[in-house]
Amino acid sequence: MLKTCFIDGFAEMWSLFPKFAPQLIIMAKASDIRNGSILRFNGELVQVEEFIHRTPGNLRAFYQARMRNVRTGKLVEYRFRTDEEVDIARVETNDYQYLYEDGDHLVIMDNTTYDQHNVPKFLFGNGVRFLKEGMNVIVAFESDEPITASLPNSAELEITYTEPAVKGDTSSGAMKKATVETGAEIDVPLFINQGDKVKVDTTTGKYVERVKN
Q: What does the pLDDT look like over 145-181, one tens digit per residue?
């Protein structure tokens, strides 16, 4: 009983700092799962995207889960019994600074300890093309293995090449191609010139606005 109280108290203390706290529970019940939880399911790590309690008529209640494999991106649907044991992964999430690209990996640095880690590029998704050196990213580790990574919602990037703006061309909604400093190509309004800085949505890859100096 004393050991249980200690663990519960420690978990409650860490819950005050959710961004940096490891998930302390390893074996738990399905009722402990929350959206965003990372489970070890059939030998694979999956992240819960949707978790709904259902009670169909006179049948026994269950949880309907939609989960995504953190390595392959494949969706998995599964029904958990309410008392079913689950393995919730021990995960730590933190802020890191992107340093440089190394083949299929990106090298990041812990902003507190200055430790460096190699993270597979694919974990960042399509938004990785807008990542520039010095940008802060969020990475989740299980033990020493990176399992998820995310970029800021937007990035401010300089236009390194685009066709010159056509004076007097005010075509509503007209766009042209432009290359940003990371090498990615995006569509920008006609008034954007080389050397301008623009804000880009890292999820959609779309131009948001021109950044004022």
A: 898 899 999 999 999 999 987 666 656 678 999 999 9
pLDDT per position as a tens digit, 69-126:
987 889 999 999 999 999 998 888 899 999 999 999 999 999 999 999 999 998 898 9
| Residue type (1 letter), 143 | S
> 25-87 sits in which CATH class?
mainly beta
CATH for 154-210 is 2.40.50.140
| Domain 93-150 grouped into CATH 2.60.40.420 | no
Distance CA 172, CA 51 (A): 44
- Reported pTM: 0.68
Q: Domain residue spans in the chain?
A: 25-87, 93-150, 154-210
What's the sign of the alpha-carbon dihedral 117, 119, 124, 129? positive
Give burial (CB, 10 Å; 0-12/13-18/19+) of 196.
middle
DSSP state for residue 183 in the 8-state scheme: S
Give the β-pairing of 116-120 and 105-110: antiparallel
